[in-house]
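dumping this here so i dont lose it
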């Protein structure tokens, strides 16, 4: 497996750089999201909308950061982490290569 084709270190670097700038521009994530000043999910959705219109992948970096903030400071009333198996997966849109080949998933 070529890990460089499965994971993007550049994406992480770009994402982290935006966190550093945002800390100085907007204040700490702990305050903004932890204290409920900023809502992560609606803001994430705004980033997705902008990406759909512009194609600018910077919005995907921002989207990922807002997803991380929701993970760190859940605002959802049932916010929690629980590992799930494929039976509880949200699923994908489309057909994976392995499904097309008839290869059973885990």
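and the seq i came up w/
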């Amino acid at each position: 497996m070529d890990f460089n084709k499965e994971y993007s270190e550049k994406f992480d670097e770009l994402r982290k750089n935006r966190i550093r700038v945002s800390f100085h521009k907007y204040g700490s994530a702990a305050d903004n999201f932890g204290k409920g000043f900023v809502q992560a999910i609606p803001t994430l959705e705004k980033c997705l909308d902008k990406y759909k219109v512009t194609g600018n992948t910077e919005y995907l970096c921002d989207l990922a950061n807002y997803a991380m903030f929701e993970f760190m400071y859940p605002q959802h009333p049932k916010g929690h982490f629980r590992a799930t198996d494929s039976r509880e997966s949200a699923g994908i849109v489309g057909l994976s290569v392995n499904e097309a080949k008839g290869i059973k998933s885990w």
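The CA atoms of residues 74 and 80 lie 7 Å apart.
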